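Memo to structure team: turn this sequence into structure tokens by end of day. - J.P.
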Amino acid sequence: MKKIYFDYASTTPTDPEVVKAMQPFFFDHFGNATSPHGFGREAQKALEESREIIAQAIGARAEEIVFTSGATESNNQAIFGAVRALKDKGNHVIVSAIEHHSVERPAEFLRQEGFQVTFVPVDQFGLVNSEEIREAMTPQTILVAVMHASNEIGTIQPIAEIEKITKEKNIPFLVDVVQTVGHIPVNVDELKADLLSMSAHKFYGPKGVGALYIRKGTRVASLLYGGDQERGQRAGTTNVAGVVGLAKAIELCQKNMAQEIQQQTQWRTRLFEEIPRRVDGVRLNGHRTQRLPNNAHFSFEGVDGAALLMSLDMIGLAVSRGSACTAGSMKPSYVLKAIGLSDQMAQGSLRITTGRWTTEEEIEYLLNELPKVVNKLRKKVNSKS
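Reply from structure team:
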């Protein structure tokens, strides 16, 4: 049985060109980048060249890029680091109600530690109202965090509008660009965010490496203590091979972006049109146009999402309900609840995300098989009632 992958939002295959670029740094150029000898200098050179490539891709300065183990660490460093650096100014943090767990859970931890945390609601499409950010602000607010695009429903947020408000109040602004960088244009001068988090494995790079952009002048305390790597921002021996892979991946994405946006938007439009035409009782989640080009998210009446995923997996279709970080949870998605879905509709959800190696044939197979699976599951439910 052929296996077809429609879960690019959770992770992507590593591009063969990325693997090729990384290979020398596992054996030939394996030195510690902080070592003073030739092996170390080779590693340090590769590190700084990669830093420059990543910075150029997002319109930043090389010295504003800090390498991490991935977006979870980047978000944690941004949140806890900013809060610790600014604790003399206040104790209030604002985040959107649909942030990834790597932002939502640190915010909740801060709340339990005595900080004031405001979770700003979203509308039925998952959009944050920038004026609600303004209304939530107090003289004690020291950080605002809103993701660029939802990893679950794909809605792209009005980041530039929100930034204008945070800038007026001189409040640091964290933007999780995990789902957007490498897939749609991300430029720090356009977004004007103070902190950006990213993870290589979301755009055809290796797992276990990411970066945090810290705008010059933004106060962020270190999260990890030890050596003086990353200009004292992140202790620990740097994953040089991973960083090289991160840089190569973002370089390839810049090269392929226009073509991939066009192709994936066409497939997304086809899914939007054909799935509701072929299946009754289906709802599209997220904004119809202001969303990621590769994301289609639906809810099905009278269908259990876990059973739907299992049934599709049995015929070779790898899809998801939402974030891979909560795949084992039986609770309805807090993102879908935030946009107003009932427990039943939230449980009956399906996320389809395409990528670099998706084909037209695979799209057609999904469109032909999904209605059969949904109807079969509904018949089972009806026969029991």
